[in-house]
Design a protein that fits this description.
Strand 3, helix 2 and strand 4 form a beta-alpha-beta unit. The chain is built from four helices and five strands, in the order H-E-E-E-H-E-H-E-H. The radius of gyration is 17 Å and the shape is globular. The protein starts with a helix and ends with a helix. It has about 140 residues and is α/β, with parallel strands linked by helices.
Amino acid sequence: MAESTDRLHLRHQLTLHVSELGYSLSLETPGPEEPEILRMSPVRRRVAYGETVLKSDLKKKRCHDRLRLFSQRRTRRRGSILFFIGVAADDQQELETLLAELEIRSGIRGGHVHVVPIAKPETAARRASSKRSARG
């Protein structure tokens, strides 16, 4: 259960990040071989992909395959498609290491692959205590 709420939080924050960069048109993702987030810039007509990665995903072959797949996709004119990966800020270094091991990002390759570290959401208990202290 906590894993699904963490993934929803990452997906929501990653969607906001990609939208703020100008990729505001949401495109439908028809099947399992499509990225979690598929957006287009209405001005430049360029596409961007987005995937979320949890700590538990870092060891899964399915996650590795998806990261490879979306990082290697090209446009019809053979240009790279921007690929954003949302990850908890605590797990960013592990993801960076994985991307290097999978040869997705290195000093030469992978400039179109962007890791987006996302802070954990504030807990409801913390919010409630700050409201009480504000009243007091």
